[in-house]
Fold this sequence. Notes:
Helix content is 50%, strand content 14%.
Amino acid sequence: MAKLILGIAGEMGSGKEAVSTYLCEKYGASSRNFSQILKDILERLYLPIMRENFAPLSLALRKTFGEDILAKVMFHDAVDDENDVIVVQGIRRRQDMVFLRELPNFKFIYVDADIETRFERVKNRKEKENDALITFEQFKASHEYETEKTILGLKDDADYMIQNNGTYEELYSQIDKIISNHI
């Protein structure tokens, strides 16, 4: 099987991590995440792992090193990865897609879910330090970050759309159908 590289995008709490985890567990995929680069830098700087820190750091890196700096890291990580299936998670901008589309056998999946479902997931998973305390109004306001606003525009670029308002079984079935097209 040729290397299959699956780019995943979706708004906060849509289920990108659930898709990635399933691909890793069932298909032996390796997982790469745009936000891991930012998290590594924040940890090294001893700054809190909070949404409010991710957005300005991302903007500063792109302003200083070019709009596609994070996509270049993901591109090289995917090329160097020896796994047959690679997940590149957390794509947020069209510029990232342009660069990643140069990878052979790259397919782009957009994960979608309604805002109420996404809010509950974010609040319950507590991925960022202040997630458990977030109100619905704050959650909606966080969609105004530049790094969040650009995600919705990626829907039109998707090779595959996953609707993730239901059960894990429904989600997994959609993923299996995508993989069956490439095995």
